[in-house]
Structure formats: structure tokens, C-alpha cells
Amino acid sequence: MIYTVRSLAKLVQGEVRGDASLSIGDANSIEAAGPEAVTFVLDDSHVSRLKNCRAGTIILTANIFEGLPATSSVSFILVTDPHAAFHKILPLFRKLRDRPERGTSPLAVIHPTAKIGLNCHVGPWVHIGEEAEVGNGCDIHPGVVIGAGCKLGDDVVLYPNVVLYHDVTIGSHSIIHSGAVIGADGFGYRFVDGRFEKIPQLGTVDIQADVEIGACTTIDRGAINATVIGAGTKIDNMVMIGHNCKIGQHNVFASQVGLAGSSSTGDYVRLGGQAGVKDHVHIGTGSTVGAKAGIHKDIPAGEFWVGYLATPEAEQKRLMFSLKRVPAMREQLKSLEQQLSALTLQMAALTNGTTEQRHRAE
To answer: Which DSSP letter does residue 246 get?
Structure first.
């Protein structure tokens, strides 16, 4: 499809600067956009990327536009939120797949006591256990297993091969991607008489509303009560959350994060990729943890910790800067050692000379 800059601006309620009749047939990133494409500038940090940009139209704010050099070769669409505007335009140039057809596949296996809500899709080779409940408008893709006693809210999406162990709860509008396993036994053992004895894991997992969980992520059930994932939290692929963890609302965890059992977070916590959290540690509301950090003690609310073992950002920077100075300090130390040796020899010579003079005098 081909659109004019004018029509795109109308769609996003923006103002045109430049040629409003220019034809646009694509939407792309700053680096990949050609003369027929529209792109966007997120904020001031992206302005430098425009140096080699070939896009025909750029979506940005009025403030950023006023700071750019004058040009007649590019059209601009001025909006208050370039990111939102671009993603309203992008579907015009990218194919969106429809939701799967409503209804239940004859190849699905559903226990007679299970309840399926209205307007759902249940794909082939799905297994739904006894007393499970699926809300309205859910998409249950092929190969999903929903264990006995599970409860799903409305508009939940479970992608292929998701496994929910028994008695797991999934809040409305949540999305769980392929291969995720929710509710497996927690990693709990006692060492008795020279062997590890399994501790029964009799709790469950409570995933609240509007949560998204990435592919191949695992969330273990609690030993006694529930492992909880707070509303609005977004979890990337291959994340591990141990038993009895309590995750606050609107957290964001990047790929390969690991939380040991009984750790917890407040609201709006961010964990960078491969960060690891020790058991029984609490990360305060609004805190951020850098990639690959190792968290071994509680983090107060609002702080930014990095490194292994993780410490507050300012402390870690001082340590890193100090380490950079080590080679120079080593050379300085060698020089000081040589000077000290020379001074020691001189002092010894002076001492010996003074002693000899005293003996002669005697």
C-alpha cells in the first residue's frame, strides 16, 4: 500500500513540515529506511543517528525538529509521542496475522469437569485437566497442557507447548510464550543421612493480570504458599524464578535472569540480563540491577546496583576506576621500592661511616 505524508499525519494527528504529498510505501528503522519510507526519532539521543538517514519522512517532536538543520529533501511529521505514532503507522506496512479461529479442535483432550469460556480457541493436541477453568476469549495454541485445577482469566494467550502444572492461576490479559513451564516443583531438599530428601512442594503459582512471560521461562511453585508474579510484570525468555518468590507489580526482567527461592521485589523493579538474585533477598521498589550483577543482600528502594558482587553504582564505578589505575600504581610502587632500597643503602653507609669515626675518636 502507498500512503501520502498527509494521510499518515492525519492518522497520528501530527503536523506536516515539508512535502505533504510525498508517497510513502514502507516504515523502517533510521538506519534501514529508504527514500520511500517513514521512520521516527525517539528522543534527543537518536538525533545523531540521522546523519546518514535516507528516509523520506521522519516522525519527531517539535522541539527536536527545531534543532535540526533546514532541509528540503525530507518531510517531517511533528507529534508529541513519536514512538506511539510510529507504531500506529507500522501495521500499515507489515502483515498482521489474525487470531486463530474460534472453537475447539477435535484433537484436543479436555476433561469432562473442565470449563471453557466463550469465544475461545483451543488448538489440536491441547490437554486440559480436571476442574480446570478457562475464561472467555482465550487462545490456547497447539500442544499446551493445562493441569488439573488451573484457573485462567479472560483473554489469556498460551502459545504452543506451554505447560501449566496443576492448580496454577493465570490472570486476565496475560501472555505466556512457547515452552514456558509454570508450576514445576521448587528446588527444595533436605540433606538427611548422607542423601538429599525431597521436600514436598505443595504451594502453587499465582500470575496476576496483564503479565507477559517469555519463551522457555520457568516459574516454580511454592513449597507451602504461592509463588506470585505481580500485575503488569514483563518477563523475558529463559528466566528462572524459584519457589516462594514474590514479584511486585510492573517489574521488567531481561533474558536469563535468575531468582533463587524466597527472594522478592517491590514494584517497578528492573533486572538486566543474566542478573542473579540470592535466596531470601529483597529488591526495593523502583530499583534497577545491571546486567550480570550478583545480588547477595537487600537493595533499598530506588537504587541502581551493578557488578559482582553487586554494590551501589557509584561505589562500583569508584572500584572500576581504581582497578584501571592498578598498572600505573604498580610501576609507581616499583619505583618507590627502588628509591627506598637506594635510600636504605645510603643510610647504612652513613651509619657505618659515623660508627667508624667514633671508633677512631676513641
So the answer is: E
